[in-house]
Structures are given as structure tokens and as C-alpha cells.
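Example for tutorial group B:
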């Protein structure tokens, strides 16, 4: 693996473009969560596919799909990011989160499961919390069965985070946002009834709030027990894909959640609600979910308020 370019800030996030021997490019991210210092929480986000075949209309990483990364190629990314900050492999971080979410739907790649099995032995890190964020493709049932086993055997007592991309409770609009055959809400709920244990973290239902896409708390209650699930609301990040497809975020840095009927409705229904707007500087860096620096470098037109950090090329 060879680093071709990077951008970002040590105080927020850094994005790296890497090239493998087959000429394919991936991206990886390391970030902190201000005001928490790195020794309190550190997040690594790695790619699992060369591109992504799903092509969600708000994600710049869709398209240009060239296959799956091997276990070694996923670990190459993690080793680079870890050793850049902790060369001896000892990671004295209270919450060390590894997300399989930069490029690619992780359930399309069985190598992710192999990485999960080896992770606890690979690094000296008592605070390890792996995270799978997924749209739950219908054809990935074997992946999720094996994930259930690995989590029960190796990541009990709250040491694993599972997230499902929901985005809207309207079925037709969900089909537009995630254009692939997927589990519906009832199927996700059935799987989670086996996955979740009383000592686990709550399972996260992710909503990138797009204008015109409803979030109905009564519909969620039909499937998801607030004792087992929480709701995370985020802005729709400013991507080229979102601009092409006329998708606009419902929220931004000036958004007042106390005036939002969605938040009030979810909390009235008993859900813990996390509103994660984050640092807007991450949009300029291109480190947020769905942003893809390689897409930016390949285009002649430029987005406003996105991908505006200087990019260092390594030749």
C-alpha cells in the first residue's frame, strides 16, 4: 500500500488516499471528537471495498466498483493509521473506535469478519469498540449470521457498535436513498432481537436528514423498542452526489433541535436521540460519511463549503 495524497487537521480529522498493488484506490480516516482529546476517544474509518456498487444518491463513494479488499488490505489501512500515532501498537485510548465505513457496504465483504476476529490480538488496546454501519442488503444474510457469532463470542458487554442506515421511515423514499434490495424495518428488528443483549450498547438507527424525507416515530415504534435502540440524527453531508440528485439537508450548524418536531416526536416515543452535527470543518476536509476525496480530485467543478482543505500529494 502506498499513500498518494492526504488532507486534514491533526486536531479534527485526516483523510488519506492509498493505492494498492492492483492500482485501485481507497480512502481512510483518523479523527478525534472535540473537545475530547485523542486519549479519550479516537476513531479510525477504513474502506472495505474498492468503490461501492450500491450508489446511494448522497454518497460520492458510489460507482467505480472494483471488488473487495482482502483481510491484509484492510489491516494495511489500520496498521498505517495506528502506527502514525502509536508506533509500538499500544493504543492508550479509552474509546478506540474502528469503523468499517469509508468506502463500501461492509456486509458485502467476508474479510471484514476475519478482521473482527483478529483485531483484539492485533493491537494492545483495552478500549477497542468495532463498529459496523450497514444498509442491511438482503443478500448478505450469511455475513450477518457470522457477525452475530463473532459479536457474542468476542465483543460482549457493550464492546461492539451496530448501526443501521434508515434515513426515512417512508419505504418508497428509502428505496430511492438506498437503491438495492435490503431488509425492511421488520427484518432489521428480527435480526436485532437475536443480536442485542442487556449488557450491550443500544443499536443505532441512523438518519441523515434529507429535506422532504419523513421520520415517523409511530412507525419506528412498531419495530424498534426504545430500550434496545437509539436514534442518531445527522446532517446530509455536502457531496457531489447529493448536489447532482437535488438532495438538501434538513439541518446545519445553526439548527435548533428544540424547535424540531422530529426530535420532539422521537423523544416523546421514548427514544434516546443523538443529534450529531459535528464539526463543520470536517466537510471542508472531506472526512464525513459519504464524502470521497478521490471524486473531488477527478472533477473540474467544485462544491462550495466542501473539500476546501489543501491536499498534499505524494507523487
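The residue assignment follows.
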Amino acid at each position: 500500500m502506498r499513500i498518494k495524497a492526504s488532507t486534514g487537521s491533526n486536531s479534527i480529522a485526516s483523510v488519506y488516499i492509498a493505492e494498492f498493488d492492483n492500482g485501485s484506490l481507497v480512502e481512510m480516516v483518523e479523527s478525534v471528537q472535540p473537545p475530547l482529546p485523542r486519549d479519550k476517544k479516537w476513531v479510525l474509518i477504513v474502506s472495505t471495498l474498492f468503490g461501492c456498487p450500491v450508489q446511494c444518491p448522497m454518497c460520492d463513494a458510489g460507482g467505480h466498483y472494483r471488488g473487495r479488499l482482502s483481510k491484509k488490505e484492510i489491516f494495511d489501512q489500520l496498521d498505517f493509521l495506528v502506527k502514525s500515532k502509536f508506533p509500538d501498537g499500544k493504543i492508550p485510548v479509552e474509546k478506540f473506535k474502528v469503523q468499517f465505513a469509508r468506502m463500501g457496504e461492509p456486509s458485502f465483504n467476508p474479510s471484514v469478519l476475519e478482521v473482527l476476529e483478529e483485531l483484539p490480538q492485533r493491537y494492545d488496546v483495552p478500549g477497542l469498540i468495532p463498529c459496523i454501519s450497514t444498509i442491511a442488503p438482503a443478500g448478505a444474510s450469511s455475513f450477518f449470521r457470522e457477525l452475530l457469532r463473532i459479536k457474542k463470542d468476542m465483543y460482549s458487554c457493550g464492546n461492539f457498535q451496530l448501526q443501521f442506515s434508515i434515513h426515512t421511515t417512508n419505504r418508497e423514499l428509502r428505496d430511492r436513498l438506498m437503491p438495492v434490495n435490503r431488509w425492511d424495518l421488520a427484518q432489521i428488528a428480527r435480526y436485532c432481537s437475536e443480536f442485542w443483549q442487556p449488557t450491550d450498547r443500544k443499536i443505532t438507527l441512523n438518519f441523515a436528514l434529507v429535506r422532504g424525507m419523513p421520520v415517523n416515530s409511530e412507525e419506528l415504534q412498531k419495530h424498534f423498542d426504545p430500550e434496545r435502540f437509539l436514534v442518531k440524527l445527522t446532517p446530509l453531508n455536502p457531496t457531489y452526489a447529493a448536489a447532482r440528485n437535488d438532495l438538501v439537508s434538513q439541518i446545519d450548524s445553526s439548527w435548533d433541535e428544540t424547535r424540531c418536531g422530529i426530535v420532539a416526536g422521537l423523544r416523546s416515543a421514548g427514544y434516546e436521540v443523538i443529534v450529531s452535527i459535528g464539526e463543520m470543518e470536517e466537510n471542508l476536509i472531506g472526512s464525513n460519511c459519504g464524502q470521497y476525496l478521490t471524486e473531488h480530485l477527478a472533477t473540474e467543478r467544485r462544491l462550495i463549503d466542501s473539500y476546501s482543505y489543501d491536499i498534499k500529494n505524494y507523487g
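The longest helix spans residues 71-85. Compare this with the pattern of hydrophobic and polar residues in the output above.
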